[in-house]
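#onboarding

Welcome to the new folks! Below is a worked example of what a typical request in this channel looks like: someone posts a single protein sequence, and someone else replies with the predicted structure as tokens. Don't worry about understanding the tokens yet, we'll cover that in week two.

Example request:
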Amino acid sequence: MSNTKPLHFLLVEDDEDHANLVQMALADNRIANTVDHVLDGAAALCYVRREAPYEDRGRPDVILLDLKLPKLDGHEVLAQLKEDADLRSIPVVVLTSSEAEADRAKAYLRHANSYLTKPLDFDRFHQMIQDLKYYWSVWNQPPA
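Example response:
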């Protein structure tokens, strides 16, 4: 498809196993996506604000955000991103194990662009990431 372009993802995930699965699924295609990974909410905000040690990093096209994070939880990261005029246009996909309605409602109140619950089954998890990647790199029409 002509809309297909590489995307730069920021993965905010403290579980290394989950992060590895996401990174493998995002790399498993013909689109040369890039993925940077940070382990906590404070690092995520430093990254998007290009603060030390991330001064040389590019702006992500999409942020994949876990909710249960050390230092600063995902809800607070999401709130700070969407309150910042320079950052609010970055799409944030909440990617979490939480199926709690309260978490989902809170994420959408804070302007999450999507809320995905991580399936326990590896094949379903892999397919979900493939679909997510395809949506953001092919179907989605970001602002110029």
